[in-house]
Design a protein that fits this description.
Structural class: mainly alpha
Number of strands: 0
Radius of gyration: 16 Å
Number of domains: 1
Number of helices: 4
CATH architecture: Up-down Bundle
CATH class: Mainly Alpha
Largest sheet: none
CATH topology: Four Helix Bundle (Hemerythrin (Met), subunit A)
Distance between the termini: 37 Å
Bound molecules: fe (ii) ion
Strand content: under 5%
Length: 134
Amino acid sequence: MGFLEWRDDFRIGIPEVDHEHRQLIGLINSLHGRLVGPGQGAGIGEFLGELHAQISAHFALEETVMRSRRYAEFADHKQDHERLLDEIREIMDGYELHGRYDARTLSDALDTWFGEHFRTRDARLHAALATAGD
Ligand SMILES: [Fe+2]
Ligand SMILES: [Fe+2]
């Protein structure tokens, strides 16, 4: 079982977007598998840094599209991206300062956030782009 499980309700019904989101989840799982071995914390700091970087890269891509299309919900959508990045940043700080890291808490937070964000903001964004003839 992976760190994060792809769930059917992550799907927004647009194949390219679902594919990209699936890839992101797969990437997070492989990072976790590679860097955080069972019972050892050697790669946790690196894992958290890479996790933050990969998620940021996905968000940056969406934000570029939103900006170039002058998407009306840009500010709200970007704010939600930042909310997750802040949460990960807090977990990174907790690990750096106190060596505190709970994989379960992190994977639950990501699961909840992805489930919500994909279904709402990402789905609305891609519906709007499709209507705009793209
Ligand atoms: Fe997305
Ligand atoms: Fe998004």
